[in-house]
Amino acid sequence: MNLRIVLHLLVLTSGILAAVRGSVQAGETTGARAGERDRPLRYGRITGDGVSIYNLADEKGREIARPARGQLVAVYKDTATGWLEVEVPGGYPVWVFGRYLEPTSEANLYQVNGSAVNLRPAPSSDVTNFPLPQRLQAGDKVRVLELAEPEKPLAETWVRIWSPPGVHGCVRSSAVEGLMSGEDGPALWSVALAALPTAPPMRAAQTRPKEPSEAERKEGEVRVALEEARAALERERIRETPDF
Prior knowledge:
The chain is built from three helices and 15 strands. By secondary structure, it is α+β, with helices and mostly antiparallel strands. The strands form four sheets. Strands 1, 2, 5, 6, 14 and 15 form a six-stranded antiparallel sheet that branches. It has a five-stranded antiparallel sheet with strand order 7-13-12-9-8, with no helix packed on it.
């Protein structure tokens, strides 16, 4: 690996780790009791044009959607660092690895056959391609958009899907405004779902394992990336002719 790339990774991962630690220290406020975790805190709308929804609560993350002004969103988490965890009707276009999917009798509807399957913003498990906060579990059903490499067997390629209900992205809190007086959030959500070309598939009904918090997940992944970058730097240092 080129030494400059290694140094860049060290700086990048160190910066992200510092940001993660800051968010942990700042803490998160959700306002939801334990029995209400699957219910939105509130509903709102995107306030402007060009707003990005990311895979994590950091603008160094990857964009997973760019909703139109006025797009209805369901807010599930409100952090002290100025980010919201939101869902949009119909889900986000994200990627999973094909080995964790199997076809059903319905065209383009696949079932998850693994546990804790990551949803990623791009078809890669690269250390900078962090998964979304939620994960798929065995029995979940998803609608497939495309295969990254259609010529390969399903188990050997990435698959782009619409994320099922309950999967959230992250957006700046300043980009979301509350509903107008008299607007009914749940009713608007139902209307938006009914307007979709196909209804989102329901997720599996079995008890779902506790998901790690966003901060715990990001810190663990960044630590792994940091150690990999440090190991690569050490390999370059001991080479007779370092790759500059």
